[in-house]
Design goal:
Blueprint lengths: L1 H15 L19 H16 L9 H16 L7 H7 L6 H6 L4 H24 L11 E3 L11 H21 L8 H21 L2 H16 L4 E3 L1 H11 L2 E4 L2 E6 L2 E7 L4 H5 L7 E7 L5 E2 L5 H8 L6 E7 L10 E6 L1 E4 L6 E8 L5 E8 L7 H5 L8 H14 L4 E5 L8 H8 L6 E8 L4 E6 L10 E5 L6 H12 L3 E4 L7 E7 L6 H10 L15 E10 L15 E2 L35 H16 L2 H17 L4 E3 L2 H25 L18 H18 L1
Parallel strand pairs: 12-13, 13-16, 16-17, 17-20
Antiparallel strand pairs: 1-21, 2-19, 3-10, 4-5, 5-6, 6-7, 6-8, 8-9, 11-12, 14-15, 14-19, 18-19
Length: about 700
């Protein structure tokens, strides 16, 4: 018995005597501390990324620098909270933070997080006090909302002045959205008080799991943009998102700069069908049915999502700030009826377009739109002969297009973020005879060549593939193989450049029985862990890299089209190449494959014809103007005039400019013009597709000759 007592005592000593934390975190109040579970997981995550991930990156001074910058950026990218003195004090952790994580010491990261939380509560309380303060809306002064290119505040007075201006802008913005002639300042003040009280409430509700999630993301993003640790509640949410059923508007949302931002529109859902919402639009208000709008700026994402989601058949109205628009812009109202979106029923769709040639002949082109590479894995594993998959669906569509004697086929992969590797390989096989499709290199540098084994070809005629900056992963494998085989023409803009493979691993596999006993002895049980969630969370870790059959990696570089269209989504700011920690492009040996044809001569002729058409195209000119405006907005510091008259005129001028711009396009298509006082008409012009069909018309003629 005495021996057992000594063993128990020794074990308790192990639990109690860890390495001394770098920072002593004060107890009580809103100060958050890492749990023993957080410390154990942090050590294991570092170990996984040092020993098992594709990059195998050691926790070092250089990685610590990146982790530190990621942490500061994720907390206060707009430089609206921290003082320079606080940044100076945090600097002592810059070169050591990742090594601390390896030892399970999260104290410096939690100290930074606690300082941010304390500062945020202070400035929000000050902002709340300024709502009822007098504001002169005729005074000439400017406000910069997003201060990422500005210096940190040097004093508390500077910080308060920024937030005084923010309150003034928020009131002015609410005032300018009121119908002409109405004075509802009292109502606007109440709205703003609710907004700030909501922000304060959310800050007070922040817990150590929230802090830990953000801190670990700062670390994993320093290694690789697609390697991510998810705490138990985030892991459950991620897995639900990856499941095949959604009920709501059909959009994936993310919090950016205190606003709920649309990051993906789910094909087949209400948002997709309505075609009003776009990527990076911001949702600033939500109303249920015909009820009052609730301002959701500054809400926790989960709270905002709970308002936006809801039972199928119910109506939700959203107040939207379009992507790239200033905060002062007039919001638009979008009304959607929620639906149950069954992702596994997302299917490839087909249509037939008629294009008139220079010779007066009509050419019929089959267009297949593919939103993702899907497969019903469960039905496939059960050997269900009718399992649903991309390749099976597209084969049926090609059969129908063959029967209708179309002259060419175009596969539209724009905004297709990828999906099943198996489907990318088998879909390629519908257009080529058997042969290699993609090469995969694992962490041991072993290369496996994935082949199409089916010698049948579903479509043998002229073929084109449209891609854009958001075509990624499996889309790039398919487009790259079609290009390498000379099987078709690739049109659009350079793809995303994601050439890596991730595996989702339950962290419980890495938590030793000794550590589990430690946690039990410490009496830790996370009450916030949802039922069914992985107890220790999960890590999505990069384990391999894709290569084209010609040996070139799709990573970082993406797939370059044969016929190029300009795009506002530059490589410097969008896609894999914009990620500092992304794996580099490299090349391995080409595998053995036989080209279907050499299209180099035809490609140069198609490019020349395309460029000649663009010289006289009004729509092409509109596209270039849109890109120029977008680029200008992205590269200009957003300075807002707080003079009511000038801001109102600026807003009206922008509205007039937008109406004039849209009316030119409507006139070009012989459609009714948008008149003042009328709601903005929905337009579905697709210049990229239209011109791609013209290129295919040229392709048909050149192939026939």
């Amino acid at each position: 018995m005495f021996k057992n007592f000594l063993v128990c005592l020794a074990f308790i000593s192990v639990v109690a005597c860890g390495s001394k934390p770098r920072v002593a975190i004060e107890e009580g109040g809103l100060s958050l501390k890492p749990s023993l579970q957080h410390e154990i997981i942090a050590k294991e995550v570092v170990g996984i990324l040092e020993n098992y991930s594709y990059k195998k990156v050691a926790a070092s001074d250089s990685i610590s620098n990146i982790v530190y910058d990621n942490l500061i950026k994720s907390l206060d990218e707009g430089k609206n909270y921290f003082l320079q003195s606080e940044i100076d004090e945090f600097g002592q952790y810059r070169n050591t933070i990742s090594q601390d994580f390896r030892n399970g010491d999260l104290s410096s990261a939690f100290h930074i997080f606690n300082t941010y939380n304390k500062r945020a509560l202070e400035v929000l309380q000050y902002a709340l006090s300024q709502v009822d303060a007098p504001h002169d809306f005729n005074k000439e002064e400017n406000y910069i909302n997003y201060r990422d290119k500005q210096n940190w505040f040097t004093s508390d007075a500077e910080l308060k002045e920024q937030w005084r201006k923010r309150v003034k802008f928020d009131l002015l913005n609410l005032k300018l959205t009121t119908a002409e002639g109405k004075d509802e300042m009292a109502k606007h003040k109440e709205t703003l008080k609710k907004r700030y009280n909501n922000l304060i409430s959310q800050a007070k509700q922040t817990n150590s799991n929230d802090a830990f999630q953000l801190i670990m993301s700062a670390y994993t993003n320093a290694i690789d943009p697609h390697t991510t640790y998810y705490n138990p509640s985030f892991a459950q949410r991620f897995n639900e998102d990856m499941s095949n059923t959604l009920e709501g508007i059909g959009a994936r949302l993310q919090m950016e700069n205190e606003m709920v931002t649309i990051k993906e529109i789910i094909a087949g859902g209400p948002a997709f069908k309505d075609k009003t919402l776009k990527m990076d639009d911001r949702i600033i208000g939500v109303a249920q049915g015909n009820g009052e709008f609730e301002d959701i700026i500054g809400w926790r994402l989960d709270a905002a999502v709970a308002k936006i989601k809801g039972p199928k058949g119910t109506v939700v109205r959203l107040k939207i700030l379009p992507a790239g628009a200033e905060l002062s812009a007039q919001p638009t109202i979008v009304k959607l009826t929620r639906e149950k979106i069954v992702i596994e029923e997302e299917s490839a769709k087909r249509s037939i377009k008629t294009v008139k040639g220079d010779d007066g002949k009509n050419y019929r082109v089959g267009v297949i739109t593919l939103p993702k590479f899907y497969i019903d894995f469960e039905a496939y594993r059960k050997r269900d002969p009718n399992y649903k998959s991309t390749t099976r669906d597209v084969r049926l569509l090609l059969d129908s297009l063959n029967k209708e004697n179309v002259d060419a086929v175009v596969l539209d992969l724009r905004n297709n973020g990828g999906g099943s590797l198996q489907e990318a390989i088998e879909l390629t096989g519908l257009f080529i005879e058997k042969g290699p499709v993609v090469q995969v290199k694992d962490t041991r540098n072993q290369i496996e060549v994935h082949q199409d084994e089916d010698s049948s070809v579903a479509w043998k005629g002229p073929f084109g593939v449209i891609i854009n900056r958001y075509s990624a992963s499996a889309s790039e494998i398919f487009a790259g193989a079609i290009q390498d085989y000379g099987r078709g023409i690739i049109l659009g803009s350079t793809s995303y450049g994601k050439g890596t493979v991730q595996s989702a691993v339950d962290m419980s596999r890495f938590i030793s029985s000794v550590n589990k006993l430690k946690l039990k002895a410490a009496g830790e049980k996370d009450a916030d862990t949802p039922n069914g969630a992985p107890e220790f969370g999960q890590i999505n870790v990069t384990i391999a890299k894709f290569y084209r059959i010609n040996g070139s990696s799709t990573q970082h570089k993406g797939v370059d089209p044969d016929i190029t269209f300009p795009t506002q989504f530059t490589a410097e700011k969008y896609g894999e190449s914009s990620e500092p920690a992304a794996l580099p492009w490299d090349q391995i040996r080409s595998t053995n494959y036989n080209k279907v044809s050499d299209l180099s001569s035809i490609k140069s002729q198609l490019a020349a014809k395309h460029e000649n058409r663009m010289k006289n195209s009004a729509e092409y000119k509109f596209l270039l103007e849109d890109i120029e405006e977008f680029t200008k907005a992205m590269n200009t510091t957003s300075t807002i005039n707080l003079n009511e008259g000038k801001l109102k005129k600026e807003r009206e001028d922008n509205k007039t400019k937008n109406r004039t711009r849209l009316n030119k396009l409507l006139e070009l298509h012989n459609m009714p013009l948008w008149k003042e006082g009328q709601p903005q008409p929905k337009v579905e012009f697709d210049f990229i597709l239209d011109e791609s069909l013209n290129v295919m018309k040229d392709f048909i003629k050149l192939k026939n000759s």
